[in-house]
Amino acid sequence: MARIQLRRIAHARSGDKGDTANVGLIALNPAFYPALAREVTAGRVKQHFAGICLGNVERFELPNIGALNFLLHESLDGGGTLSLKTDAQGKTYSAALLRMEIDVPDALLSETSVSR
Amino acid sequence: MIRIANGQGFWGDSLEAPLEQLRRGPLDYLTLDYLAEITMSILQKQRSRDPRAGYARDFVEMVGRGASDIVERNVRVVANAGGVNPESCREAAAKALHRAGVKIGVVAGDDILACLDALLNRGVEMRNLDTGEPLSTIRSRVQSANVYFGGAGIAEALDQGAQIVVTGRCTDTGLVLGPMMHEFGWAKNDWDKLAAGTIAGHTVECGAQCTGGNCQVDWQSIPDYADIGYPIVAAAPDGTFVITKHPGTGGRITVASVKEQLLYELGDPHCYITPDCVADFTTIQLAQAGENRVRFSGIKGRPATDMYKVSISYSAGYKAVGTLVYAWPDAYAKAKAADAILRQRLDRLGLRFDSLRSEFAGVNACHGPLAGEPSPDIAEVVLRVAVRSEDPKPVERFTKELAPLALNGPPTVTGLGSGRPKVEEIVAYWPALIPKSEVAPQISIRET
């Protein structure tokens, strides 16, 4: 097993709906999706965003595009114009999620090229 | 096959993009999104000062600059530029167009500010979708109230011969779906096709954010950001479509760039609710179909709900944001010390805020605790302090407490060039639902 940062096998985009941030996490190659689905649980994402996400985390699966969508409730200091955060719309939370480390089989990394 | 372009992803997007879309290749439709959630309240304020104002003036300027391209190349233009005064927007656009015989349609009826109390009295509660609170808690502070209509009203205006369609509040996805409904004659209950048009709309609604803008995959190798091409939907009557852009423009359209945009501001992917249908993002099949071409197929949808979403804006107090820049050595330590001193002074003045937030740009403003401790040698740190209160007085006083730190606090501080921070009125957003039976789009066509 190898411990890697998500940025090696995934990309992401985030946005807002009120005080909820959404973070979409996408496998760089379809072969990486099962590892994402197994390791990046709602609980782990909640733990990862400790001190940022004050509410619960919901997870949705989009296997058709090799992606997961997370809703991070109460994460934007009230959200919209009420928020005093620099990143009031959670635009950089995508990259923040890619800091997470997960364990993947060594073979997954050596045998799979990253598709663009 | 029809080609529907997006030339504007939000209020504040590139002024040149719509003209580039008109001029650099063939198009059937140009769609433009000029509204954001808080835009309507700003426009409402403009209209209260001038009864002929209250719409997106950038649109009128665009029509003026692009008049010959629009008319001679027979491109139909669909824009939610009407704001709270679509009728005046039409008049201004007609003047800017400076051509006779062009039909301009307006889709109105979304503005429910004047009948808010009548709706409340009829038992339409318009509770906040996020918090469940009733509208009565903020009724006296409401500044604007608009229903989000979908693509159907736009399709009707196009059916009646409009070459330019100006709407008030309208879903971003409806701007693209409307032309498809008109061109392909899709039934109002052909849910799969309406879902396909809705997903096409979602993909292009943020302009270049699907053509390589903001894309994390190999961003350094994305060609020619300076001349980035905005997206075009090449749509077929069966509900399949290709996302592409004009040849010779910058950016890059790949399955990866498109996937990122699909996930942008997405909630439950099974239930993407619009006035037109409920689209299921888990049914989308994507394929790279050549350079800068991504094909969509397989999309399924379900029946629309019987509610419209309403966007209500209300006055929610005041805020101010100020910054100071601290330089090496000990930049972070100095910025933290300055923050502590400032807080002591605010306390001593007896100022109370609903919220007071300090961030250290260069250290943790974006990623908070996830960013970890900075290098002790960090070159500079920006202290950013923001306050919010229902009462303007403490916010006003706060704006006068930052500057003194330039002389009476920790050393090597700069960045006060623009003077004291400004007090801003906060206009907040109240999302709610109303039954579709309460309102309907009103379509009118006039010839220039």
Describe this structure in words.
The complex is a heterodimer of chains A (116) and B (448). Chain A has one domain. In chain A, 22% of the residues lie in helices and 31% in strands. Chain A has 4 helices and 6 strands; from the N terminus they run βββααββαβα. In chain A, the strands form 2 sheets. Chain A has a 4-stranded antiparallel β-sheet. Chain A has a two-stranded antiparallel ribbon with strand order 1-6. In chain A, a hairpin with a 4-residue loop joins β4 and β5. Chain A is elongated. The relative contact order of chain A is 0.31. Chain B has 448 residues and is α+β, with helices and mostly antiparallel strands. Chain B folds into 2 domains: 267 residues, no CATH class; 116 residues, Alpha-Beta Plaits (2-Layer Sandwich), CATH 3.30.70. Chain B contains 12 helices and 19 strands. In chain B, β1, α1 and β2 form a beta-alpha-beta unit. In chain B, α1 packs parallel to α3, α3 crosses α4 and α7 crosses α8. The chains are: A alpha+beta (116), B alpha+beta (448). Chains A and B meet through β2, β3, β4, β5 and α3 of A and α9, β14, β15, β16 and β18 of B.
Low-confidence spans of chain A: none
| Estimated helix fraction of chain A | 10-25%
> Main β-sheet of chain B, in a few words?
10 strands, mixed
Number of strands of chain A: 6
Number of helices, counting only DSSP H or I runs of 4 residues or more of chain A: 4
Question: For the largest interface in this structure, which chains are involved and how many residues does each contribute?
Answer: A-B, 46 and 51 residues
Structural class of chain B: alpha+beta
